[in-house]
Amino acid sequence: MNPLLRIDPADPYPESDGAPMADNTLQFDWIVKIKENLEILFADRPDVFVAGDLFWYPVPDRHIIGPMAPDAMVAFGRPKGPRRSYRQWEEDGIAPQVVFEVLSPSNSAKDLRDQLEFYDTYGVEGVLPVRLHEIPSLAR
After folding, report:
1. Phi, psi values for residue 49, rounded to 5°
2. Which residues contact 65 (CB under 8 A, 6 or more apart)?
3. Tens of pLDDT along 31-41?
4. Composition of the chain by helix, strand, coil, percent to 5
5. The domain 23-134 is classified under which CATH number: 3.90.1570.10, 3.40.640.10, 3.40.50.300, 3.30.460.10?
6. What is the pLDDT of residues 81-138, one digit of tens each?
7. Coil vs helix vs strand at 88
8. Domain ranges of the chain
9. Where is the Putative restriction endonuclease domain (predicted)?
10. Which residues contact 107 (CB under 8 A, 6 or more apart)?
11. 72: phi then psi, degrees, rounded to nearest 5
12. Is the dihedral of CA 128, 131, 137, 140 positive or negative?
């Protein structure tokens, strides 16, 4: 379902679409592990922003292109600190350079292609899809 259908039209930059962050506990665990390990990796870098499941708005008008919420993202050259959403035009035009997507069995090939196209269009340099359901020791 299109996440924009669940967003209040009166809110210019909503923080949530009401959808769950993960489809299952394994996916949730790995999203958290990746995000928290990125925080640890860049703990001494005040110029590296790390977030998980945060709406990223690449352009000011969300009716032109809606937000994306990467499972984890890293933006170099941006200060740490809380944000309600990542608004690229308020972040010196800097897109997250690295994005992680922890895929579940319900993610289709088209879903991944659409995400990759979005990330490529708006300046992400590296996308790391994690296919947990294809790792035999994790598949249950």
Report:
1. -100, 130
2. 58, 59, 118, 122
3. 999 999 999 99
4. 30, 20, 55
5. 3.90.1570.10
6. 999 999 999 999 999 999 999 998 888 889 899 999 999 999 999 999 998 766 666 6
7. helix
8. 23-134
9. 68-128
10. none
11. -150, 145
12. positive
CA distance 63 to 4: 9
What is the residue type of 109?
A
Contact between residue 140 and residue 115 where contact means Cβ atoms under 8 Å apart: no
Task: Provide the token pair at 132.
Answer: 């947990």
Half-sphere exposure of 51 (CA within 13 A, CB side): 23
Dist CA 52 CA 36 (whole Å): 9
Cβ atoms of 125 and 98 within 8 Å: the answer is: yes
User: In this structure, what is the dihedral angle of CA atoms 58, 118, 23, 14, given to the nearest 10 degrees?
Assistant: 20
CA separation for the pair 111, 108 (Å, rounded): 5
Structure tokens at 109: 């090939």
**Whole-prediction pTM:** 0.84
Which residues, 6+ apart, have CB-to-CB distance to 98 below 8 Å? 73, 74, 124, 125, 126, 127, 128
